[in-house]
Write a structure and sequence with these properties.
This protein is mostly helical. It is built from three helices and two strands; from the N terminus they run H-E-E-H-H. The chain has helices spanning about 10-15, 40-115, 120-134, and strands at about 25-30, 30-35. The longest helix is centred in the middle third of the chain and has 79 residues, at about 40-115. It is rod-shaped, with a radius of gyration of 45 Å. It starts with 7 loop residues before the first helix and ends with a helix.
């Protein structure tokens, strides 16, 4: 049973529901509890001890829930870190592949341009000159 969604007021209400019902004979005089039966005081003491134990158990459960939340948060951060590292690796691969591709294509285009350049022979030049002289 976890108390993640409970507020302090919810927990106090739960404790109020578990408070002992004092017998109707219990009286107070000047703010002091006066009992007619000595067993009443023992009963009240045992109820107070029970409440203290319940409060300790609730505190332990709250602390446990907080620790579990912290562990879950840390695990999520670790997963996010791993995902970011994987994305960085993919980005670096893509970047290096793109750079290599650009270099290869540029070299190929330059090489293809040099091969396709016409080579001028003297006969071709002379033919052109002769045609212009006529």
């Amino acid at each position: 049973m976890t108390f993640r969604n409970f507020t302090i007021s919810d927990i106090l209400k739960m404790l109020a529901l578990t408070q002992p019902k004092l017998p109707k004979q219990t009286q107070t005089i000047n703010g002091k509890l006066v009992g007619q039966d000595p067993n009443q005081f023992e009963y009240i003491n045992s109820q107070m001890e029970n409440l203290a134990q319940q409060l300790e158990q609730i505190e332990i459960q709250v602390v446990t829930a907080q620790q579990q939340d912290r562990r879950e948060y840390i695990n999520q951060l670790k997963l996010l870190k791993a995902s970011v590292q994987n994305l960085e690796q993919l980005y670096n691969r893509l970047l290096s592949t793109t750079i290599v591709t650009v270099v290869v294509l540029t070299a190929l285009l330059i090489w293809m341009g040099l091969i396709r350049q016409p080579s001028y022979n003297k006969s071709q030049i002379n033919t052109t000159v002769i045609a212009l002289q006529n």
